[in-house]
Amino acid sequence: MEKIITQQIGKHLRAGPFDRWPTGLGFDYFYGFNAGETHQYYPVIFENTVPVEPDKTPEQGYHFMTDMTDRAIKWIQLQKTMQPDRPVFMYFAPGASTCSASCS
Fold this sequence. Notes:
Layout: E1 5-11, E2 29-33, E3 45-47, E4 50-52, H1 64-82, E5 88-93
Parallel strand pairs: 1-2, 1-5
Antiparallel strand pairs: 2-3, 3-4
């Protein structure tokens, strides 16, 4: 059986050594943040294990949910173009707040 191509987009709650990040846990690609929440206009983002900056500002229309969604779609399109017969798995975890501060 062919290896499934995997990606994780969005929230990842296990910060620490890189072997605890998505790419260290078996995902081929990661684009997101290592926390329970992040700012939707000024997020702290990582691509695999490298910090990256958004390609535009909130004043130019940036929002993290749109960024995550666009990246996910482009990644799947790229994989299906390069290896159309290989299965793809994507774990998509939006940046919504799940910390205790969100409870009242």
